[in-house]
């Protein structure tokens, strides 16, 4: 083999080194360009950066929590108002039923001259009777509503079972096959005919 001199090394080897350096520089330049494009051009100017920092961002976790709390507060307030309304209704029903009967009794008792203690006792009895009647009426209505609901549920269940059994029967017919494994077309054609007739009637 021929040994190279220092001149050969500098000339031949220098070109290779310079070539690889230029490739690396080119790659670095390309990477910079890609990064600039990806990041949206050059860096921000100092003025633009200051403006961006001073602008208020709409995202504020404290405000979000405040909104949630307000929403929850209004929801709770709605439930409380509904509860108070129902209490008022119950109170009005009790007042109306207990107030009407004692007034009628009071008019009768004044004519007879009955003492005040007897009037109070009559009022309490009539009030308890009216409450009991209201309670019984309410129970009857609830019982009636429950029976109706059960009847509706039972009817739906029967309808569902009937439809399911029909589907099962139709499916069995559709999957019937001959001894050789061929599907029986009779049931499939009947099914198609029924669907066509059903669609034409509607």
Describe the secondary structure blueprint for this structure.
Elements (H helix, E strand, L loop, with lengths): L5 H34 L6 H9 L6 H52 L3 H59 L10 H17 L1
Helix pairs in contact: 3-4
What tags apply to this protein structure?
mainly alpha; 202 residues; flat
- Helical residue percent? over 70%
Instruction: Count up the helices.
Output: 5
Overall 3D geometry? flat
Order of helices and strands: HHHHH
Strand content: under 5%
Indicate the low-confidence ranges by residue numbers: 12-16
Largest sheet, if any?
Answer: none
Q: What Rg do the Cα atoms give?
A: 46 Å
Helix/strand structural class: mainly alpha
What does the model show?
With 202 residues, the protein is mainly α. Helices cover 85% and strands 0% of the residues. It is built from 5 helices and no strands. The termini are far apart.
Give a brief rundown of this model:
By secondary structure, the protein is mainly alpha-helical.
